[in-house]
Amino acid sequence: MTDTLDPTPAPAARARALLRLLRDLNLSDERVTIAGARTVRIVGCRSLDEPADRVLVYRVRCGEIEYDLELNLHTDGEHGPEVVIRLTPDSPGTDRRVRLVGGADGPVTAPDLLARLDPDAAIAKDAAHFMRRVVRAAFAGPSAA
Fold this sequence. Notes:
Layout lengths: L11 H14 L4 E5 L3 E8 L9 E8 L2 E10 L7 E7 L7 E4 L8 E3 L4 E3 L6 H17 L5
Antiparallel strand pairs: 1-2, 2-3, 3-4, 4-5, 5-6, 7-8
């Protein structure tokens, strides 16, 4: 992400398109290295038959434990759309809020994750990179902000 960041909140439609893309690609068998040299495996999308306009759920596995990785889209915040990343089962209070910025077209950027994805032009490799950033954020816990 060496380009200049557009600080404009992403339009809600672009944020929803991002979730739909991640749902439709149904990423699976991706491996993500997290802190402590542990590995998380993305098993696949659990919400394939659901609209991805608000919530997207992926199944992930770390060691022998399986989790639901939820991406909850909130479009009514004062700073524009944000995704709340939740890992369940887990202890309460581990939600991570990530704002989404960008224009009416082009990439949607999650600056806190150092990740961006263009819902109109992304390929599976791009989406997998974005999801790896989401997984790392989920297992790192809530943001310091």
